[in-house]
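Example 3.2
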Amino acid sequence: MDTATISPNFDDIRPLNNDEVKDAIESLIANQDFERALRYIKPQLDWAEFSAAMRACKTKEQFKATLAYDAVMTVAKATTFSLTISGRSRLPKDKAACTFISNHRDIALDASFLNVMLYDVGYGMTQVAIGDNLLIRSWIETVVRLNNSFIVKRNIPVRQILEASKHLSAYIHHTIRDTKESVWIAQREGRAKDSNDRTQSSVLKMLAIGGNHGNLIDNLMELNIVPVAISYEYDPCDYLKAKEFQQKRDNPDFVKSQRDDLLSMETGILRNKGRVHFTLTRPINELLAQVDRSLDKNSMVTAAANIIDREIYKNYRFYPCNYVAYDLLVGTRRFQDHYSVKDKKHFEEYLQGQIEKVDLENKDEAFIRTKILEMYANPLKNHLTAL
């Protein structure tokens, strides 16, 4: 559903309203940084023609369904071998609004890929939670809010965190309950850089705090949570993540710069990802209903997180590289039936190539190698625990 106006109570975090679309589009057309960024994706772009197409969009729905859809599919065609989805039959038959919670692999593309595939099956695109730490340029904020994203405030004083969490949660409940739009949010703040996916308790506490029920579990059930398992064959940012692991190992106070975030976004969008698959798992309200309401708050949060994690773990899709990485990491041949000699050779060459991309003066190749192997093996490890 494309609502014309969202409650003014949420002006600081909401997507744009439709009466703001025209001015937003004009600001983007006039922004040279935005034009340069688009040309990375579409080098042959006719700017005059594209500007006319932008101006033809009068609502967020039109922008999402045409220009945003086309941009995401252009990236998918250029950087993936395939982009697929399964579990569509598990979606509510009445297209009721859901909160899609997924593991997090790519800064920009996880929700974008999910949205184009939901659109293709006639379900409708979601609103997307995006951290304000990624809004490095003014035009980025304009684009994401035009594309129906809402803002998660990250860099705020400790004393403001609770109030910001209440505000964000109230907005998500308002979106599901009142405007009846689905929402996507990652299971944790930022990506799990070692692919050891765990739902953060803070995310669930935030989601629950804005409900109208007296119980945490009932507040979560109001959101109609659907876990989503995301599986990338190759993570183009794996070497950047491994580099960061070493930087933090060698300097516990290391903090990434905005330039690092931009490089991760660019690398994730533009580089090869191989096969990419999304699995929609079953809605978890029936499972949440079984949680003992007499438990203390932290125990209920843990129970809910375990339910989400288990659904994601069970529904990963695996590729030969995952099995090879597990066997190389553990020093076994347990999964040798799942890959060929050629598969193993290809992944070992890929691994070495990624290691060579790490530009550190004191590069610890053995450490970097282990970290990259963990990224590909950990989803399989977690899957085995869920069987």
